[in-house]
Amino acid sequence: MEQEIQLEQALNNIQRLIENIEKVIRGKRAQIQFILTALLAKGHILMEDNPGTGKTVMAKTLAQSISAKEDHHGVNFKRIQFTPDLLPMDLIGSHIFDDVQKEFIFKKGPLFCNVLLADEINRASPKVQSALLECMAENQITMGDITYKLENLFFTIATQNPIEMEGTYPLPAAQLDRFFIKIIFGYVDEATELDIYKDYLGIQNNLDHIEQVLSMDEILFLQKETEKVFMHEEIIAAVRNIVWGTRKHSDITLGASTRSGITFLKCLKAFALVNGRSFVTEDDIKILTHPVLDHRLIYRNKDAKQKALAGILDNELARLSKLNINN
Q1: Which pTM value belongs to this model?
Q2: What are the pLDDT digits (tens) for 245-266?
Q3: Which of 224, 247, 265 is the last residue of a domain?
Q4: What own/partner pairs with CB < 8 Å and gap ≥ 24 does 25-31 have?
Q5: How far apart are CA 271 and CA 278, in angstroms?
Q6: CATH code for position 36
């Protein structure tokens, strides 16, 4: 009984968070759900979009919606604008000499935060990109012989621009694999954009006075509840079949790894919880396959990218529909 009450409270909290974010971010319910899915799955998200679509405001709104233990302005949010001249120490921090203590002390960089916006991540050099690898994968940063643990809540929202590709460094497969989900943030529809134009002052006021609807501890609790979401054995088998299908398909030169499959399972559970359910459905697989797997695969050509994974997914959904596991 107590667990049911906790679950119901968790589901209500997620809806409160979504509705709070939508006071500022209009017409982006699906994208918000993907972002929260990555958050609850203890992962990170990569967004490909054009400038001015609301990515910075989205990250700020999320951070300000979550109250910190000692801060009344939301959890610690940092934004890093990635540029070609950026150095790893600009992210991690560096040792500086303390005149009082007469010794070098470590001054922490912006990676020591709760919510990080890594803006235009593919504009920085591979050395800087790799500085994110350890903290995204292991929630820690090693500086010399000392390892610093990051906060229990550490969530990265990274963006890359799909148009201005000059002077960029494409993210390597190892870096892309750290992002649980990749989405196109995109523009809103015409009606929503008109609504934004009419009420842009009200939206700015909402951002300035965003309500803190959840605490950091409640977010950590939701992450634990995500692990308890029920998943039918056939759903697990479907994930295995899709992952294996990417390895055997003639139009895919690099298929999904075992880690990709585990990430897929975590995201399915989180997406179910974000949508108010304690169990995973076939539709969850249909919605999440491309955002979770596409950026991890290497295709032979552009035509293959449009068809290969879609064909694998269709075959597996057809198999699941015959089993009728949702009834």
Answers
A1: 0.91
A2: 999 998 999 899 999 999 999 9
A3: 224
A4: 25/54, 25/57, 25/58, 25/61, 26/188, 26/192, 26/195, 26/196, 26/203, 27/188, 27/189, 27/192, 27/193, 27/195, 27/196, 28/54, 28/58, 28/185, 28/188, 31/58, 31/183, 31/185, 31/186
A5: 10
A6: 3.40.50.300
